[in-house]
Amino acid sequence: MSKPLLSIEGLTVDLPASADRPHALEGMDLVIGQREVVCLVGESGSGKSVTAQAVLGLLPPGRLTVSGGAIHYGGRDLLKLSPLELRRLRGARISMIFQEPMAALNPVVTVGHQIAEAIRAHEPMGKAALHDRIEKLLAMVGLPDPPLLRKAYPHNLSGGQRQRVMIAMALSLSPDLLIADEPTTALDVTTQMQILQLLKQIQQQREMGILFITHDFGVVTEIADRVAVLRQGHKVEEGTTREVLTAPQHPYTKALIAAVPRLTTTQRAGIPADAPTVLGTKGLVKTYGLSGNFLRRSRQVRAVDGVSISIRRGETLGIVGESGSGKSTLARLIVRLYKPDAGAIDFQGVDLATLGRADLRPYRRRVQMVFQDPFGSLNPRWTVGDIIASGPVIQGVSKQKALSRAAELLELVGLERTALPRFPHEFSGGQRQRIGIARALAVEPELLVADEPVSALDVSVQAQVLKLLDDIRHRLSLAMLLITHDLRVAAQVCDRIAVMHRGKVVEYGSTVDLFTRPQHAYTQQLIGSIPGRDWLEAEAGPPAARPAVSGSKPTART
To answer: Coil, strand or helix: which one is 512?
Structure first.
């Protein structure tokens, strides 16, 4: 290891008395060297973000309290510095990239002004010099047309561009230590790979230390020198990337690695070739009108452009692609939350595209949807029982019978009947997603549309939810449409995959064929951008045939 830059020694952070355990962190030790990337890995609630907040003095007062230990940087204990001394360090010497840039950026202030605020707080300078510094930073992180982009607002930018703005802001004063808290979790694989490569390149150029927080071991292989694994506030394992990934010692580390979706694909059995088609679309089109601003002119965009797919009973069809490819719009067209501009949606001989609101009602029960954000889609004022029972009650089932069915469904998705009188905020993210699945199944649908159902979950919870969906599909002979940007997820549960790019299906076929013999350049790019692809393939053993992917990418740091 290089010369120590930051040293955390015996750090203990207390939780409120009402919490499920006494400490958010207990006896935490961690050293980050100059020019070193250390990944902090663990599930939600393991203490990763608490560690970052403690370093920067950002722990919420009255809720999390440091009760022991020290954090040494530059010969001083950060825990003993005054608020003024900490403010002088934040941004200038120690900087942070937050997980959700849209929440971290002010929506009513231009990105240039927000970067300028960080610079002015430490280095007063003239307007011309400040604008020049900001535009150089925007160019450094790979953003196009910096003079124009400096005047843009966060909502004018894509998710990847907003994350690059956050990186530019964090690097604006050339810090010695960069803390990146899940900076790529919600990004597409191609954007994620670009951000990881950008961080690595800048880290090597500026010789920074990086504390990178993640729950994805695929990301770890792309960027880390060393790895520390946290579980419920305790560091259970630490070592080089090679040591932890190839020879994990702690059972928890082994379980996390085992939960990472692999790239192994097998021809799934149990779906007869003559299985009836539940739903088919033909030439489906949906066009949006985008108003103009100083960054773009008003224009028409075909979010879905002539899409034709089909799903058989008992089959899982995956729709994959980047954000903006049209995946979610297609899902909402199929469940008729949106009305298509052209094309047909054939549901067992009935064209749903032509039906009005009243005529659609009998089909609402037969086509159900599981949403990406379970907390946002569950009514916080309703109990779990009322949420699950609401669909059957609307369809004419008695409240008593609907609640009895809700209790059975909770057991089906792996929860206890005692959860019926509880509210959504009393559950974890994975448990809320199970409640969302139970709600969708309550009206006994024939087609289940799952829109990014595991994208925001830890890998262990993700594996549980994917297994649950696959078990339910098999047990109930459901047809399932799975929307995802993660090809590792699609490889695990999909029989066939349709790859969407700019509203069109550019490749369509069996999962095995798509992964072993991708035909379209965009599909090859998606597969080549999967984080930790080389490690995942090595873990699965040498495949019979690897896809020929154009371009190169960095190998895992060891």
So the answer is: helix
